[in-house]
Specification:
The chain is of the alpha+beta class and 237 residues long. The chain has five helices and seven strands; from the N terminus they run H-E-E-H-E-E-H-E-H-E-H-E.
């Protein structure tokens, strides 16, 4: 069994060994500053999204499901014939309808969605007007295509780094340093899409698209952001 002096000596030797082998943490660094710089750009929306839905009620749930399915199939078939418009099914759900006392189920109601997307706004608007004869409008949204966003972000990366370097130089001068060393740097992308006024149109107002001239579409923009977050170590004279 080790005596107390020997234990202390063993601990001292262990610490010395770790230090000599580089296993201890790096020696403390001073004059480190965390900085953030970001660049922003407004990018026009180039994708249009339309959500249509069909809703019906029937005392026979099987007949109701068949009716909804037939409407969906006809809609999908019509959309697939239009070049440049992609389509997929959205949510679909049914729920019971009760009597006035809320005790007995008198019927079933079902709702199902179809979601369309296209970069050709005029074509999708015209198609929507045709589909509103059998479907109802659920909403209209706009977004930036993935390829467009990536291209813009890549072009902004250098600007973000340049902005970080300029801020690092200002911080170094403020501390009276002769220069700085970059300790770490991370680049991040993001953006903000403002709420679109066209979301959630009423079917009654949108039904006019079938008889009236196609309205002009103002897709709006989203803000694309590239940020540079890093730490510098200011070198003092």
């Amino acid at each position: 069994m080790l005596t107390m002096p020997r234990i202390a000596s063993a601990i001292a030797l262990t610490i010395a060994g770790l230090a000599s082998s580089g296993l201890l943490a790096d020696e403390a660094r001073y004059n480190q500053i965390a900085l953030r710089a970001e660049v922003n750009q407004e990018v026009a929306h180039d994708l249009m999204h339309i959500t249509l839905y069909t809703e019906s009620q029937n005392a026979d749930p099987a007949k109701l499901a068949a009716e909804i399915t037939n409407t969906l199939n006809k809609t999908l078939e019509q959309v697939r014939q239009v070049k440049g418009v992609s389509v997929k099914l959205g949510s679909r759900h049914s729920y019971p309808v009760y009597d006035d006392k809320g005790q007995k189920i008198t019927a079933w109601r079902e709702r199902a969605e179809v979601r369309m997307e296209s970069a050709d706004f005029a074509r999708l608007s015209s198609l929507t007007g045709e589909l509103l004869q059998s479907m109802k409008m659920g909403g209209m949204d706009f977004s930036i295509a993935s390829d467009t966003r990536k291209t813009r972000e890549d072009a902004m990366l250098k600007d973000a780094v340049d902005a970080f370097k300029a801020r690092a130089q200002l911080a170094t001068q403020a501390l009276g340093g002769k220069g700085y060393k970059l300790v770490s740097l991370s680049l991040n992308t993001g953006g903000f899409q403002p709420p679109m006024a066209m979301r959630g149109f009423e079917a009654k107002s949108m039904a006019m698209m079938d008889s009236a001239p196609t309205p002009q579409i103002e897709a709006g923009t989203s803000q694309v952001t590239v940020s540079a977050d890093g730490v510098i170590e200011v070198q003092m004279p």
